[in-house]
Design goal:
The structure is a single chain. The chain has two domains: 254 residues, Aldehyde Dehydrogenase, Chain A, domain 1 (3-Layer(aba) Sandwich), CATH 3.40.605.10; 180 residues, Aldehyde Dehydrogenase, Chain A, domain 2, CATH 3.40.309.10. Strand 17, helix 14 and strand 18 form a beta-alpha-beta unit. Strands 12-15-16-11-10-17-18 form a seven-stranded mixed β-sheet, with helices on both faces. Strands 7-6-5-8-9-19 form a six-stranded mixed β-sheet, with helices on both faces. The protein is globular. Helix 2 crosses helix 6, helix 3 crosses helix 4 and helix 4 runs parallel beside helix 5. 42% of the residues lie in helices and 20% in strands. With 453 residues, it is an alpha/beta fold.
Length: 453
């Protein structure tokens, strides 16, 4: 079956892409392996030049690519422009720092002489999600390729035009053919890829089901993997005299990328003495968020990327209310044909409720009351997932003390969650394993080889 690019807001079909069969797929992997044998010998200065050229092209095409993200997955146009600029800078950071990060390390232990070097390993298979069509793919592919590997990539089935544009970025920047190859395939073909002897690793960002499938295949065929999956990140409110400011920050944290961001805050843990005021003000803020056309700069809440997600969100909200959650605002499908759902706040949450336990990757915020700070820590940690947590409060030492006890990969104190090319993007528990970004991202698919002399 073809891959269909469809505008989630208008319903218009943008373009269709024919998928390839396994014989064609094998031929592509073989060519990627042949390209790898040459690419791994390519001088660092040439790699740097190619990626810096790619970053410049991405900047030049910022507006057209932002519109592409908007019409293909409903991303807010202004947000898309901002993130594409950030992605170009991410490419530049890796291009300007990879050589020093991957340089040989002298072994200094007494009686030993030698070094540690980082060698590329081969063809890497990537699977990208739809919510950051350019950024999520490139922040994995760029360091993998700079490390000397070649990359074959399957994007989410609803953003094939973005994948086509990313292929054009590599081609127009002058990369050798088959160093990066876009794959128009179904998820059922992943085993065929991972089983290929030339494929030495797999990186994925996706759902728990996708993670389990890829993880089992990587294990079956003994391939290295970096896997990021579900998230359910907490926002903890500690002692404060600035509840209005914190509510505004909470709103921004939940609205990030139109609600569709892995490390945006989703569960709000509020000390009892601020709870009623927080819920009232938070609900008022959210009720004023404009839902609609993602090309309109006034819009805060864009369409969901598919009708299925609208159905999923409404089911989740309905179940939570039936379980005892209180609907503060929202909870309705605004326009089924345009995939629009109202900004929603659920209060009086309890562990075990659907919207507390499951990731809320859509316009829903869940608020729970904490009796004291120890209870707040317990509630924040009560999750199978562990990407990032946010802590807000006036007492810096109190915030740091709480941060030390939170079981999450990244902690942000009095600031919204984010990511930087130079810092590891890290998770624990069922949020996956491995690292992206920073030095660890560059070394993820390398052979850390010990050479003794």
């Amino acid at each position: 079956m073809p891959l269909i690019s469809q505008n989630p807001y208008t319903g218009e079909v943008n373009k269709e892409f024919a998928t390839i069969d396994n014989d064609q797929l094998t031929a592509i992997i073989d060519k990627a392996h042949t390209a790898y044998l040459s690419w791994k010998q390519t001088d660092a200065s040439e790699k740097r030049k190619l990626f810096l050229r790619m970053a410049d092209i991405l900047d030049e095409r910022n507006e057209s690519y932002a519109k592409l993200e908007t019409i293909e997955m409903g991303r807010l146009y202004g947000i898309a422009k901002k993130w594409l600029t950030g992605t170009a800078n991410l490419i530049r950071w890796f291009a300007n720092n990879f050589e020093s990060i991957l340089a040989n390390e002298a072994i200094t232990e007494k009686w030993l002489s030698g070094h540690i070097q980082y060698d590329s390993i081969g063809v890497i298979y990537g699977v990208a999600p739809w919510n950051f069509p350019f950024n999520q793919l490139l922040r994995a592919a760029v360091p993998n390729i700079l490390a000397g590997n070649t990359q074959v990539y399957k994007h989410a089935s609803n953003v094939p035009m973005c994948l086509e544009a990313i292929q054009a970025l590599f081609d127009d920047a002058g990369f050798p053919e088959w160093v990066f190859t876009a794959l128009y395939i179904s998820s059922s073909q992943s085993e065929h890829i991972i089983s290929h002897p030339a494929v030495q690793g797999v990186n994925l960002t996706g759902s728990e089901d996708a993670w389990a499938a890829i993880w089992s295949l990587a294990g079956k065929y003994l391939k290295r993997s970096v896997l990021e999956l579900w998230w359910n990140d907490p926002f903890v409110v500690l002692d404060t005299n600035n509840i209005d400011t914190i509510v505004a920050e909470a709103t921004a944290c939940r609205l990030s990328n139109g609600w569709q961001r892995c490390n945006s805050s989703k569960r709000f843990v509020v000390l009892a003495k601020y709870y009623d005021a927080f819920v009232e003000k938070f609900g008022d803020f959210m009720s004023k968020q404009i839902v609609g056309d993602p090309m309109d700069p006034a819009t805060h809440v864009p369409p969901m990327s598919s009708a299925r997600l609208v159905q999923d969100i409404h089911k989740q909200v309905t179940q939570s209310i039936e379980q005892g959650a209180r609907l503060v605002t929202g909870g309705t499908v605004i326009d089924e044909e345009k995939n629009l759902y109202a900004a929603t706040v659920l209060a009086d949450m309890q562990p075990g409720m659907t919207s507390w336990e499951e990731e809320v990757f859509w316009p829903v915020a869940s608020v729970i009351k904490a009796n004291d700070i120890d209870h707040a820590i317990q509630l924040a940690n009560t999750s199978d997932f562990g990407l990032s947590a946010v802590v807000y409060g006036d007492d810096a030492e109190q915030c740091k003390a709480v941060a030390r006890q939170l079981e999450w990969g990244m902690i942000f104190i009095n600031q919204p969650p984010g990511s930087k090319a130079s810092l590891p993007f890290w998770w624990v528990k069922k949020s996956g394993y491995g690292k992206e970004n920073g030095p660890d991202g560059l070394k993820a698919f390398t052979n850390r080889k010990v050479v003794l002399e």
